[in-house]
Design a protein that fits this description.
By secondary structure, the chain is an alpha/beta fold. It has 2 domains: 199 residues, Alpha-Beta Complex (2-enoyl-CoA Hydratase, Chain A, domain 1); 48 residues, Lyase 2-enoyl-coa Hydratase, Chain  A, domain 2, CATH 1.10.12. Helix 2 packs across helix 3, helix 3 packs parallel to helix 4 and helix 4 packs across helix 5. The chain contains 11 helices and 9 strands.
Length: 263
């Protein structure tokens, strides 16, 4: 059987590719589970410092959840559907969102439903000029289930998110950029080079500091400002005793480039 998610190491970056191109890289249960397993491996590998996630083929990043598969779970009742479909999908996007190493989506085509929700959950995203996004779940009589009702309003604002959620209408990459769903739109042939270039800009810096920033932002988004400031202080405290902070300060004062472990 073909792996539903491929992994390729390129120096300090792991390239993960959703690999069901004949199904527009739809997220069946096997794909979700394999993606989480690969993230577990990457987290434990100190030689990998960033992740780029894209889709196989020329048409799709991911068309969303595998409707044929999860419809069978729905037939078995709400408890089974919640366990097999909703919790699995939410667990996957939560893993991406809280992953301690930067995750960049390289959106190469259709990003509907769960594919759009992955884009919402990851830390950064670059979109091809061919990318198309949509929140079409309402067309099959359900709300988004992998976090789309929660993350999109936080990114785009309540009214703009509700328009997309309630109409199911598709929107292009420039609109996704305007909404804060992606960081950059590039020509299709430049997509992966742009994603790797973004990763390289991050990899110049301390991997421990990057992890602390990701944690502070992810946890702080759902906190009050006073709680968020405490989270920020805690993350600084975790850095204060590390070699990375000493190296960073010494390099700055010596006017030289910092060198961090793992570089």
């Amino acid at each position: 059987m073909t792996d539903t998610v491929l992994m390729e190491r390129r120096s300090e970056v792991a390239l993960l590719t959703l690999n069901r191109p004949d199904k527009l890289n739809a997220l069946n249960y096997e794909t979700n589970d394999r993606l989480v397993r690969l993230l577990d491996e990457i987290e434990a590998d100190h030689l990998v410092r960033a992740v780029i996630l894209t889709g196989a083929g020329d048409r799709a990043f991911s068309a969303g959840g595998d409707i044929y598969e999860f419809s069978e779970s729905v037939k078995q009742g709400p408890d089974i559907a919640m366990r097999d479909f909703v919790r699995r999908g939410q667990g996957m996007t939560q893993r991406l969102e809280a992953f301690p190493k930067p995750v960049i989506a390289a959106v190469n085509g259709i990003a509907f439903g769960g594919g759009c929700e992955i884009t919402e959950a990851v830390h950064l995203a670059v979109a091809s000029e061919r990318a198309v996004f949509a929140k079409p779940e309402i067309k099959i009589g359900i709300p988004p289930t992998f976090g789309g009702t929660q993350r999109l309003p936080r990114l785009a604002g309540r009214k703009r998110a509700l328009e997309l959620l309630l109409t199911g209408d598709p929107f292009g990459p420039e609109r996704a950029l305007e909404l804060g769903l992606v960081n950059k739109v590039v020509p299709h042939e430049d997509l992966l080079p742009a994603a790797f270039a973004l990763a390289e800009r991050i990899l110049r810096h301390s991997p421990l500091a990057a992890a602390r920033i990701i944690t502070a932002v992810t946890r702080g988004l759902n906190a009050t400002i006073s709680e968020g400031l405490q989270i920020e202080a805690e993350q600084f405290g975790r850095m204060a005793a590390t070699d990375d902070i000493r190296e960073g300060l010494d390099a700055w004062m010596s006017r030289r480039e910092a060198y961090y472990a793992g570089r």
